Each structure stands twice: as C-alpha cells, then as structure tokens.
Amino acid sequence: MDAKLTSGRSFNLTGSSLLTLLAVGLSLGSLILDGFGEHSLFAGVSMTLPLLVCAVLTAALGYGVVPFLQTLKMGQIVREDGPQTHLQKAGTPTMGGVFFVPVAVTVALVWSGLALAEPEFVNVLVVSLVTLAYGMIGWLDDWQIIRRRSNKGISPRLKLALQISVGLVFCIWLAASQPSSITAIALPFGIVLPLGLLFWPLALFVLAAESNATNLTDGVDGLAGGTCAIALLALAAIVAPTSPGLMVFCACLSGSCLGFVVHNRHPAAVFMGDTGSLALGGALAAVGLLSQNLWCLFVLSGIFCWESISVIAQVAYYKATKDDAGVGKRLLKMSPFHNHLELSGWSETQIVGAFYLTGTLLGLICLGLQSSF
Fold first, then answer.
1. 55-93 pLDDT, tens digit each
2. How many C-beta atoms surround the C-beta of residue 147 within 10 A?
C-alpha cells in the first residue's frame, strides 16, 4: 500500500516540474532544430542562443520587477463567478507583460540589427512594433481593471477597435512593402490559395482573433506562457529558411515566455495580464502573415482556437436555450475550456501539462506538414 501511494505521488505534476520539462524541451528542441537547419550555436543566426539569452534575462529581471509590482499594488482582480480555487489568487501582481515582452523585443532588435541585413531588420522592427502596440492595448485594459478594482477593463468595443486599428496599419504596410504574392496562402502538398483582396479582411481577423485567443488561454498558472513558448519555437523553425530575422524574433519571444514561466509557474508569483497575452497573440499573427505561413499558424494555434471556440459555443448555447425567465443552459461547466476541466476535477498542473503536450504535438505536426509544402 505504501509503495503504491509513494508511486502515485511521484507522478504528481508540480509547477516546478512542469517548468523543468518546458525548459529542457525548448532547449533540446531548439538545439535539434538548429542542427537540422545547419545553424551554428554561436553563429549570428540561430534559435538556441537568442532563446537562452532571453530566458535568462527575463527570469533574472523578474526577481526585481515582481516585488516592484507588489509594491505598486498591481494585484489581480479575480472574477467572482470563476473557480473557487482562483479566489486565493486575488492580489497576485498582474501586468507581467511589462517586463518579459520588452526583453524579447529589445534582444531581437539588437540581434537582428547586428547580425542580419537591413530588410530582415526592418521585418523584425515592424513585427516588434505590432507586438508592443498590442501590448499597450493590453496594458490599458489591465490599468483600468486595477484602477477601478473590477475585473472589467476597457469596453470590448474599444478593445476590438484598437486591435483592428493596429492591424489596419500593419496591413497597409504589408500592401505597400510586400510583393503581390503576400495575398496567396500556401497550403500543404504544394497547394496555393490566391485570395486577392479577400486576404486583407482575413488578415485583420487573424490579428484580432489570435490576440484575443491567447488572452482567453491565460487563465491558469503557466498555461499561456508555456503554450506560447512552444508555438513560437515551432514558428521560428518554420520561418527559418526564408526569414532569419523573424526566426530570431520568435526564438527571443519564446525564450522570454520561458523566463516568465519561472515566476508564473504554479503557484504563480505574477500574471502576465492582457499586457502580455495580447502582445503574444499579436506577435504570432504578425509573423504568420508576414512570412506567409497562415496555415501553419492555424495548426500551431489549435489550443488557442479551441479555447475561443469553447467561449463562443458556451455563449451561443446559453442564448439559444433561454427559457421564459431568461435563463439558459450551459454547454460546459465554465468557459474557456481550461475552466471546464478545472471544475471537472483536473488540477491546474494537470491542465497545464496536458496543454503543453498538446502544443508540442501540434508543433511536430506543423513541422511535418511544412515538409510537404
């Protein structure tokens, strides 16, 4: 009996063990991918070194920034209708995106400026600006939540309008600077889908949807940071053959996410807030659009997409089943889907572990599909 109990406890996931698995997985993955891409570890262009540099810098910076956020009383406001276990998270500093996103952007800009040609640096500069712009939208939302001491920030309409506005500026730059082939989507097995003018509303949708999807995924300790780190590393490998600058950018942001999870693992000492989650979604979408890898972005974003679909389905089903008293039925115990799992008896670490594994599988599938393009 004791042996069985000991054996059972040995398989319990903890925040620290998940962080270790994530760090080892990302490090080995980047080394292997660099090997396949024939990138020298200490060359100007690789994935491993930028990832590790940003991870170390972000983790180290967090030891100073997190206590500072606590001093400023930047505490998280927990939704009252959420899982009861989340009530103990109230007061945990939020707005963590203010330190891990700038680290990635700064290192990516310096690295690409020193090691790459001007066109590649310009690409990194533009996606960095998009990332920071979405981060600023998130910061505004976080600030309003903290200032009002409510879990309601800026209005959904204003947030969406700002997201579309940033996306519109980015799309105008794409139309002016990129070849006309930017409007064609490459699919597996050599299939190319020319969209023409239809590409631009799709691009705006991708930018807004991706940023909101990563935002919805940020609800469990270490979840958004880790899954985004995995997706960004896979995206770095996909864009590497044609866009070394975007490869470095994705590797830097992946490393910064890893460094952030050092402080965000269960039990979290800080949350990324909309400042971080909107920035991550904007970065993924901008790189996917600029590198013409929308199909791969869709596959890599499977987790984020599912989280969004769970919210949409929950709201639609509730409205469709309203009775005379205006009360509807729930399709899930709570949305997004990770909250449903938690209320179904899953621990936070089990959810995060399952999502990390799913994200890794999606990355491998995407890399496999990429070889058929």
1. 999 999 999 999 998 887 766 665 555 565 555 666 788
2. 9
Calculate the average pLDDT of the chain.
Answer: 90
What gap in Å lies between CA 361 and CA 342, rounded to an integer?
22
Taking alpha carbons only, the member of 306, 298, 285 closest to residue 127 is: 285
Query: Any residues with CB less than 8 A from the CB of 12 and at least 6 apart, and which?
Result: 349
Backbone angles phi, psi at 192, to 5 degrees: -120, 130
Task: State the DSSP H helix or E strand holding residue 186, giving kind and residue range, or none if neither.
Answer: strand 184-186
Cβ–Cβ < 8 Å for 214, 284:
yes
Query: What sign results for the dihedral spanned by CA atoms 54, 56, 62, 65?
Result: negative
Q: Token digits for 122? A: 């310009």
Segments of the chain scoring below 70 in pLDDT: 1-11, 74-90, 371-373
Q: Which amino acid is at 118?
A: E
Which amino acid appears at position 141 of this protein?
A: D
The amino acid at residue 318 is: Y
Q: Identify the CA nearest to 113 among candidates 17, 298, 244.
A: 244
* Best CA proximity match to 55, nearest among 252, 268, 189, 344: 252
> Under the phi-then-psi rule, with left for phi > 0, alpha for psi from -120 to 50, and beta for the rest, what region is 87?
alpha
Which residues, 6 or more positions from 54, have their beta carbon under 8 angstroms from its beta carbon? Answer: 103, 104, 107, 251, 252, 253, 254, 255, 256, 258, 259
b/e per residue 89-108 (b: at least 16 CB within 10 A): beebbbbbbbbbbbbbbebb
Asked whether the beta carbons of 338 and 217 are under 8 A apart, the reply is yes
Task: Provide the greatest CA pair distance for the chain.
Answer: 70
Q: What is the pLDDT of residues 97-127, one digit of tens each?
A: 999 999 999 999 999 999 899 999 999 999 9
Q: Which amino acid is at 253?
A: L
At position 116, the amino acid (one-letter code) is L
Distance CA 277, CA 182 (A): 26
| Distances 114 to 84, 107, 126, 146, 324 between C-alpha atoms, Å | 50, 11, 17, 39, 66
Question: What's the rounded Cα separation, in Å, for the pair 210 and 91?
Answer: 28
Q: How far apart are CA 28 and CA 38, in angstroms?
A: 15
